[in-house]
Amino acid sequence: MESASESAVVVFGQDGMQSASHVRRLIRQGLWTSHTSGLADEHVQGNVVILPQSLAGDFLRYCQRNPKPCPVLAVSEPGERLLPALGADIDICTDVPRYRVWRDGELVDEPTDIAALWRDDLVSFVIGCSFSFEQALMEAGLPLRHVEQGRNVAMFRTSIATEAAGPFSGPLVVTMRPLRAADVIRAVQVTSRFPNVHGAPVHIGDPSLIGIHDLARPDYGDAVDVMPDELPVFWACGVTPQAAIQQARPAFCITHAPGAMLITDLLNHQLASF
Amino acid sequence: MESASESAVVVFGQDGMQSASHVRRLIRQGLWTSHTSGLADEHVQGNVVILPQSLAGDFLRYCQRNPKPCPVLAVSEPGERLLPALGADIDICTDVPRYRVWRDGELVDEPTDIAALWRDDLVSFVIGCSFSFEQALMEAGLPLRHVEQGRNVAMFRTSIATEAAGPFSGPLVVTMRPLRAADVIRAVQVTSRFPNVHGAPVHIGDPSLIGIHDLARPDYGDAVDVMPDELPVFWACGVTPQAAIQQARPAFCITHAPGAMLITDLLNHQLASF
Fold this sequence. Notes:
Chain A has 274 residues and is an alpha+beta fold. Chain A contains seven helices and eleven strands. Chain A folds into two domains: 17-130 and 245-268, PSTPO5379-like (3-Layer(aba) Sandwich); 145-240, 2-Layer Sandwich (PSTPO5379-like fold), CATH 3.30.2040.10. In chain A, strands 1, 2, 3, 4, 5, 10 and 11 form a seven-stranded antiparallel sheet that branches. Chain A has a four-stranded antiparallel sheet with strand order 6-7-9-8. The A-B interface holds A 56-57, 60-61, 64-65, 72, 75, 85, 163, 189, 192-193, 195-196, 199-200, 273-274 and B 56-57, 60-61, 64-65, 72, 75, 85, 163, 189, 192-193, 195-196, 199-200, 273-274.
């Protein structure tokens, strides 16, 4: 597995407080094509879904019905590559480190630039990401093992069904972070402040109760160990719409690659509800 | 002005804790056609917007871009009169005390039943309402003058523009409640818990800073006095979409009459984010 933290030092320098626009520029130039956990860490990162306009209404309704996994931060005008609500210079075709291209629900490519695939009828959705509340958890003194180890967060498909809308349905996808009991309580308090980026956890403890049978084998991202004195804590995840897209099998769709997010100019602190 | 609190005692009896389904049944029978402030007060009430499917996507995008005034609680399937997400027996054609019918952006009728106007292409939106956090404010011991006086809350159009989407744009509409300073601070804390029903205030103090020139002349609802030791406190209001509809001038649209809400089976406590 790639050690992203070491690679990031090479690309971005020792300073962990990179500006969002600086990191985006390096991504745009193809110099960073991996996951974005820990990069420009004061800034909001987003999950990306790009769909033809004919499906955009159904998809927005799906997000409305499933606000915990699908908190919508911005929706573009059809055919518009820029996302001014999230940053002055954001170009959705170049500013995500790695994309996934889906045709008829099958993953067909993982490019680092989608300008050649752009169409006038495409609508971009940016959906909140748990990286925003991870900053708040770390500021509260809670250790996050995957960040310490420079890994992508572990993500799992659950047996919890989302609310359907049009062709979109499927399982709730969650992220898992192991925490000691006192930290679990604090984590509930801290993440409750961030309803726009998944908010409070959806489950704590026994993974089998939500249909997860092996924590060592995540469906997306990297496995992390759960120590004997820790509980696994599960939050709704912005990869959920990718599972819904696999279910809906749209003729054409583009998403980010799990963990490789769009970095915006918004500050995580701006998303706190109190 | 009608004294709603006295009338409500006649229709519903002395018990202020009416069940939502009981109140809805009386509304359905045409026995209550006025505003719903204080009725079934543990239950979530909602603003209603009904639009042809051709405009529903733009309108949902408008709501996404303006979550403080337009927090969407539910969206119906096209042509579907029932709203199962909000209550087992809710019929959007009969369960609002008074509707407003708009043609080409002009208010043309205020019926108490819209079954005769129903069409297979209509989509219903239910948008959160400040009555939900009013219960929390009263439980926190904060006095709400308009409730004490049995009046509708005072609503004002402001000079703050909402974010446009498709044909929908227009001013932010706010509700105003007068509070003493210590209660203002508490009110910010209490209402911050309810981001899905307008959340924290948008303004406190001088009304002219947000384009309101006379607190004695609200644009909707009833005026209430502001005492010398009080500050006016302003929250985003679910009548904002009605102002956007007047701007968009859709060929056909139905809304609730300001203050005369849809009463759902959801509990206000269910909407608290922490």
